[in-house]
Amino acid sequence: MSPAEEERSLPLPERWPRASKFALSACAAAVAELVTFPLDLTKTRLQVQGEAAVRRDGAAAGRAVPHRGMLRTAAGIAQEEGVWKLWQGATPAVYRHIVYTGVRMVTYEHLRDSVLGRAEGESFPLWKSVVGGMSAGAIGQFFASPTDLVKVQMQMEGKRKLEGKPLRFRGVHHAFLKILSEGGVRGLWAGWVPNVQRAALVNMGDLTTYDSVKHFLLLNTTLVDNSVTHSVSSACSGLVAAVLGTPADVVKTRIMNQPRDKQGRGLLYKSSMDCLIQTVQGEGFMSLYKGFTPTWMRMAPWSLVFWLTYEQIRRLCGVTSF
Q: Where does it primarily localize (predicted)?
């Protein structure tokens, strides 16, 4: 049998390992995103609550929505807008994770194995894992930034309606087209800088912590590669990712949600650094951790659902372990 015929006889996951892992990562991420999405919506609403720049410029015309905590915000959305509004913006969120998670997983594995040189079954230096995780997250988020922009703006539509403002979009595709027509291709990447910064920090906590904890447990304890190991690794990765990523997430949300002029320029913040400074000066340092609780509560189950789904699909498809 010739090498070409032998290659064609191999199972698809062995012939196309990167493409197979991209596909199963995207599927696992879509499941995790839909299960935990209400927490993400709640987090986004909390992050723009009490925005100092909005108060200063008087941009929040109409009836003001009172300050609420996580539970009251979620309950308020369900009571005032409808239970299904807890999933408003879920479609672009799934689009985002198909691109973001697929790219970051494949990129991280390639960097880890081919560039940073981790051998199978050996320990991996933490600094290499950090470099790989941050790089993979930044690359994945850059490509997925337009879908994140649409997700954030659609998540705020219910709040705009309560404040007496007109809705901006009729649906996901209308949102993409409207942003593109108003700001051009560049407008689709509005807020990409803090978005990439956040993704790099989150992945330093998520991928790096999950990978490091999992391999530490397998090499140094009696635990085997099963749901218990995945659960412990996921819990650790969710906490670290939330601590590292929430400040950049607050800045990203506010920049993406701010009103813009006809040229697509922000009316409240000139840059991510300007948003950071205004937020801290106007609301205090802890305002950078608005939405931390739902972020943490979401990241741990998201990571758990993702990795359990990923591992189950991987075994069914015969893809080699992450």
A: mitochondrion
